[in-house]
Specification:
Layout (H helix, E strand, L loop, with lengths): L31 H36 L24 H16 L3 E4 L4 E3 L2 H11 L17 E3 L7 E4 L3
């Protein structure tokens, strides 16, 4: 059964299946030969550029190794310069170990804190033993002798002890 608008064909697209006699391709279509030549020379130039850049980098690396690092002329007379503080840690685990060792030696030894003022430090164990023997406590524990004075109030850093006087 033919469609009334198909012009003698079963479908409207059937008329484009066969090339009419005397017809050729459109002259406005792209020519294959120039497109293939363009793609060929693009591939050739990409290969040449990649090898050229690789060769150039190899020359630059060899030249940098031969010359070495040249210091600035004015910096020749100066010693090694360090960046401004704070600097990044070079070996954090070793620096932490050294810091803890220094702190431990300070807590476990006798020594002067300020010789002119006569202040010393003693081992922490000895300091705690002397504190217990003298009966001093730092916080208002049961049996301690801390007494709240009239008008006093706890400060932010007092741990609940009445240490400051409020002004009227």
């Amino acid at each position: 059964m033919e469609h009334p608008d198909a012009g003698g064909h079963e479908s409207a697209d059937d008329e484009y299946l066969a090339t009419p006699p005397g017809s050729t391709y459109e002259h406005t279509d792209a020519h294959v030969r120039p497109v293939v030549k363009f793609l060929f020379w693009t591939a050739v130039s990409a290969v040449v550029i990649h090898f050229g850049i690789g060769f150039m980098y190899a020359l630059m690396i060899d030249q940098a190794v031969e010359v070495g690092e040249r210091p600035y002329p004015l910096a020749v007379t100066q010693g090694e310069r360090l960046p401004p503080a704070p600097r990044l840690q070079q070996n954090p685990p070793e620096e932490l170990r050294q810091f803890r060792q220094e702190e431990r030696s300070l807590l476990e030894s006798y020594g002067w804190m300020n010789k002119e003022a006569g202040s010393v430090h003693i081992p922490i164990e000895e300091a705690m033993r002397l504190t217990v023997e003298s009966g001093l406590t730092s916080r208002g524990l049961p049996g301690s002798q801390s007494v709240a004075l009239p008008g006093s109030r706890p400060s932010d850093s007092s741990g609940g002890r009445m240490a400051e006087r409020s002004t009227p």
